[in-house]
Amino acid sequence: MTIRNRLTFTFTALIAIIIFISGLAVYLLVADFTERDFYNRLADRAILAGQLQLEQDELSAASMAKLKQKSRHTLMSEQVEIYAKEKQAWLARPPQEAALLQKVLPRLKPNEFKNFILNQNQAVAYYYTDNQGDFYILVAANDLSGKRKLGYLQLALLVSFIGSILLVIVVGRLVANQALDPIATIIKQVNTIRATNLHLRLSEGTGKDEIANLSQTFNQMLDRLEHAFASQKNFISNASHELQNPLTAIAGEIEVTLTRDRSPAEYKASLERLQSETERLEKLTKDLLQLAQADQQEAESQYEPFRIDELIWEVLEDVKRQGPCAAVRLILEDLPENADNLIFSGNKALLGTALKNLLENACKFSNQKPVSLNLKADEKEINILIRDEGIGIPAADLRNIAEPFFRARNARGIPGTGVGLNLSTKIIKQHGGTLSIKSEEEQGTEVMITLPIVA
């Protein structure tokens, strides 16, 4: 069942229940009032009968005339019977009636009324006391007028109920359509969005309701999808290009070498070139793998507390051990007195990779000039400043320097993949930090890392 039909059905069912209960309550109240009113009229007739039959010796002629005038307005199928209490003449009635009256009449108290049903008629028994003795006055009648009115009321309520339900169905369908039309519009717009037109967005309208929130949330998701698709497309394009270069160089070197026989020295030189290209390919593949893993580990990383200064010492030793690098001067002049301010909670391996990439870049592009690393910390954040005095980054390239595979024009002659800085930026952001770069061509580069300390 569609939501549209479900809303219509639910709306109709609720209103139907309310109308039915209201109609039933009205009918029961009217029926109860009609019944009590008729019993009151029977009681009045019983009193009138007692006065006419038993008070003649005590009333004046004028009073009797008034009573006789009132007695002319009889009820439908009215029956009036008066029984002397001592004689119990009611026992002469048919057995079922006699048994019923025997249960009702002897239990009456003086001037008490008793309402009951006698032969499908409403009846009132009245204990009448007089100077002539005690009597039971029985008045029975059929309230055909009241029953007819109740029948009309039933018909009116039934017709009103059916008409109301039909009206509610129509109104419910209109309300459901009005409520769900914006969703239908959203579905129609969503169905037009493909991988080739992820720039399209849903109309958010000017409202502040849930539908507008849904459109805004969906558009935000489309923003993320578009960015992810663009990043993926750019990544594949750049990766294909970067992987093709060393593979082409390897294939070309092999092809040239195989064109003729060569001396051992030439073969050795060719193998060394192949080894260099293979190492370059291996480094590129490793960087690509780390870049992909960094995205995956954003949700999977297991954070643990560690001292940031100890991590820096480990990274420095690793950088010096794995490749030639100018002296790195470690500045620890502004360390906090409280050692707890140096404890950071994060993925130690990933942060180590980020710092290592940044230090390797500083060493690689420093022109053999000194590189410094300055560590500062307080109770709110940790700041790591890496500075070199090398070739710097041209101003035109600075805005794109963190893009994957992007290399500044003055760095293209230096071995590298263009992945390390992008990887470091991602890792720092995953840990809630920021990475900013200031650089001037031929003057050097400053990389500032800021990591928040979460209590």
UniProtKB/TrEMBL annotation:
Annotated SUPFAM superfamilies: ATPase domain of HSP90 chaperone/DNA topoisomerase II/histidine kinase, HAMP domain-like, Homodimeric domain of signal transducing histidine kinase
GO cellular component: plasma membrane
Protein keywords: Coiled coil, Kinase, Membrane, Phosphoprotein, Transferase, Transmembrane, Transmembrane helix, Two-component regulatory system
GO MF annotations, alphabetized: phosphorelay sensor kinase activity
Catalytic activity: ATP + protein L-histidine = ADP + protein N-phospho-L-histidine
Protein's name in the database: histidine kinase
Coiled coil feature spans: 267-294
Domain Histidine kinase: 238-455
Class of this enzyme: transferase
Location relative to the cell: Membrane
Residues that span the membrane, as ranges: 6-30, 155-176
Pfam families: HAMP, HATPase_c, HisKA
InterPro entries attached to this UniProt entry: HAMP_dom, HATPase_C_sf, HATPase_dom, His_kinase_dom, HisK_dim/P_dom, HisK_dim/P_sf, Sig_transdc_His_kin-like_C, TCS_sensor_his_kinase
Cited SMART domains: HAMP (SM00304), HATPase_c (SM00387), HisKA (SM00388)
Enzyme Commission numbers on file: 2.7.13.3
Residues covered by the HAMP domain: 177-230
Kinase keyword on record: yes
